[in-house]
Specification:
By secondary structure, the chain is an alpha+beta fold. It has helices at residues 15-34, 52-61, 72-87, 129-132, 158-161, 163-169, 172-182, 255-262, 330-350, 373-380; strands at residues 39-40, 63-66, 114-117, 151-156, 187-196, 204-207, 226-231, 242-243, 271-272, 280-284, 289-291, 300-308, 317-319, 325-327. The chain has one domain: q2cbj1_9rhob like domain (Jelly Rolls, Sandwich), CATH 2.60.120.620. α3 (72-87) crosses α6 (163-169) and α6 packs across α9 (330-350). The protein is globular and about 60 Å long. Residues 1-10 have low confidence and may be disordered.
């Protein structure tokens, strides 16, 4: 049996005291965030090309908040699917799960769908977990006496767990954004849901997502792709992801030096990615980012879906966060990319009035990737075993 490591600094602080300590930082960060000029609706021209001012703001800041991406009916579907999925979660993780990765039993799936953490903890900060990409620990208060021992903080494999999430994956506006940023042949990364329950949600220590291409001779500010983060509830400065604008251009960030200069985990110059329910953020995976323990009264549920430039994945040999060594062949990329077309077809069945996105690498293969009962078992089930990490 493996114990969950206690990595959060031992600070005698109640959740209310933590929230009060964050108040001034939150106010300053929110003002900086609103002055960046990187939020608004998805704007496409007649040829479905992304407006150049949006592209400029994304590359300048490292993220962009797309407002009003998900309508009321779709938002209701997504929320219902999340609630049903969480209702099926065991009360605690598998006692034989590994340190830093406490997951529930897989059940019908090869990869366990539920990830747990201690309430208001920081499971990764200051450890060697996740290839050591979380070098500093976040300050965490002691959870209230009536808090559960564990809280679900992540769902793995959104697209097989929730049909509404599969339909969102085929969103024509979001896929047009992916094409504009990464090229016609963009490829998938993975899809997870972050759960930050009020008074329970753990911190995610400051980090950068990319692992493979930092030392590449042709490294650039887009080498590790991006994540979409679609918000099912209002994402507030107290519970949302924070980022250091522009750090995606700088290479590897020295978080220990930044924390020392700032005097705490409240890094100077950071901004919160504030969103309303139905908004979706595009965030460069090289951007320095993290989130604090959720001592607020507001819940955050974020659906993540990541994408890469194909040239950064094809025939790349790498080590996943679990330590597994893999090579991403053309066949593997093609098989994993079929899920994009599956999502497009599932969405078209739910929203037939909407013009579907044409995913160029699979044009002509639409019939082989129709959404139906057979595809659920033969193509979608355990699809996340073919996730790609760089």
């Amino acid at each position: 049996m493996h114990a969950q490591p206690d990595t959060t600094p031992a600070i005698d602080m109640t959740p209310a005291e933590h929230a009060a300590k964050m108040a001034g930082y939150i106010d300053d960060g929110a003002q900086r965030a609103m002055a960046l000029g990187n939020r608004g609706p998805i704007q496409l021209d007649a040829e479905c090309k992304l407006h150049p001012t949006i592209v400029e703001a994304y590359w300048r800041c490292g993220f962009y908040v797309f407002e009003g991406v998900v309508g009321a009916a779709e938002l209701a579907d997504l929320r219902q699917d999340v609630e049903e999925t969480l209702a099926a979660a065991p009360a605690r993780p598998d006692p034989n799960s590994s340190p830093g990765n406490p997951s529930a039993f897989g059940g019908e799936y090869a990869k366990p769908p539920y990830r747990y953490a201690k309430p208001l903890s920081d499971p990764y900060g200051g450890t060697d977990l996740n290839n050591g990409r979380h070098p500093i620990a976040m300050q965490g208060p002691t959870a209230s006496s009536d808090a559960p021992e564990w809280t679900v903080n992540l769902l793995d494999g959104n697209l097989q767990l929730m049909d509404a999430s599969l339909r969102l994956y085929g969103h024509p506006g979001l896929l047009a954004v992916a094409e504009a940023i990464l090229g016609l042949d963009f490829v998938p990364y993975n899809e997870v849901t972050f759960i930050k329950e009020p008074g329970l949600g753990p911190a995610v220590a400051w980090h950068q997502d990319g692992t493979t291409h930092w030392d590449a001779k042709d490294w650039n500010e887009g080498a590790h792709g991006f994540n979409f983060m679609t918000q099912l509830y209002d994402s507030t400065p107290a519970n949302c992801v924070w980022a250091l604008p522009g750090t995606h251009k700088l290479g590897k960030v020295d978080f220990k030096a930044l924390a020392a200069a700032s005097g705490s985990d409240q890094l100077d110059g950071a901004v919160p990615m504030m969103c309303s329910a139905g908004d979706a953020v595009i965030m460069n995976r090289q951007l320095a980012h993290g989130s604090f323990a959720n001592t607020s009264t507001e819940r955050r549920v974020t659906l993540n879906a990541g994408f890469f430039p194909r040239s950064r994945v094809l025939n790349v040999a790498t080590r996943k966060l679990t330590g597994e060594e893999v090579i991403y062949t053309a066949d593997r990329i093609h098989e994993r990319s079929r899920i994009i077309q599956l999502g497009i077809d599932a969405r078209q069945q739910r929203f037939p009035e909407e013009a579907p996105f044409a995913y160029k690498p699979l044009v002509g293969e639409e019939e082989q990737n129709r959404w139906n009962k057979a595809a659920r078992e033969t193509l979608l089930k355990d699809y996340n075993l073919r996730d790609m990490f760089i």
